[in-house]
């Protein structure tokens, strides 16, 4: 939707010729922008509450650069880039604010959104090897405007490490439980928490872990109520879902 069209629409609301809900619907249905390599959805934030995210894997550094700059120049002031390679980060044109988080392979154009809710999202990992996926989840949630707490390397092989954080677990609004191997962490946390638990299986583990399939099936078969599961290594999906839950109207 161009500025002229939006101004006309707002004028209709001011004059009583359109309701606020009618105007909002038209904004949600506004067209996207086509560039030679992508079709950019500038109004996703209006429809879904979070603006378009760039998935970096499979894109060249030049493509990432062009998409990010187009979004920025169109008014999107917080742009998340996931699965961004070191090469793409190094060659990114720094004429706009840019930060790269190497461990998570996350790029940020602009600044993180200030937390919108008093509640926090807790990100927990079974082991240190799960931290890259955890950081993708945590940074996604933080960039989208959430307070995030982290407890890493608290897997069931030494369950007393997890229980030492019982207060944090019980006070969280959403928990993201990230683990490879047999993926038991999500079930244990699900048995302690009174909030939604988002389980993320990782591809960490020996041969019969099957690249995360064993953890995935274990989490899908969790006997703990309130546990949902995203795909293997999908930290972004978990962080995004946790953001939606944390920003629902009801406060914890």
TrEMBL record:
Pfam families: AIRC (PF00731). GO terms for molecular function: hydrolase activity. GO terms for biological process: 'de novo' IMP biosynthetic process. Residues 119-251 form the PurE domain. Coiled coil: none annotated. It comes from the Bacteria. PANTHER family: PHOSPHORIBOSYLAMINOIMIDAZOLE CARBOXYLASE-RELATED (PTHR43064), SLL1489 PROTEIN (PTHR43064:SF1). This is Nickel pincer cofactor biosynthesis protein LarB. It comes from Emergencia timonensis.
